Amino acid sequence: MKNSASGFCIILILICCFYLGFLIGNLFGTFLNFLRNQLIWDGIILFIILFLFELLNCLIYNRKFINKFLKKIFKNIQLGILLGFFVDAFKIGS
């Protein structure tokens, strides 16, 4: 019984991390106009996003990364952010 409750808590934490990433992805679209006014070139925003995702991928797929639970948390946040970008792109397009 204790093992199933622990598994449920882990799944619940991972789902919350996914939704946190989704929220971050949607909030990015909200603050995009502010960022566009502050930076000279829109490509800088793209480079910053790509750099952050590559840094996160380096952390996730590094073999020396011992904590597998933290690895799953980072991956779920990253997937949520990407899904948030995708959904926000459909909101802009419609």
From TrEMBL:
The keyword Kinase does not apply. InterPro entries: Uncharacterised_Ycf20. The keyword Membrane applies. Keywords: Chloroplast, Membrane, Plastid, Transmembrane, Transmembrane helix. The chain crosses the membrane at residues 7-28, 40-61, 73-92. Signal peptide: none annotated. Belongs to the ycf20 family. This is Ycf20. It comes from Glaukea argentea. The gene is ycf20.
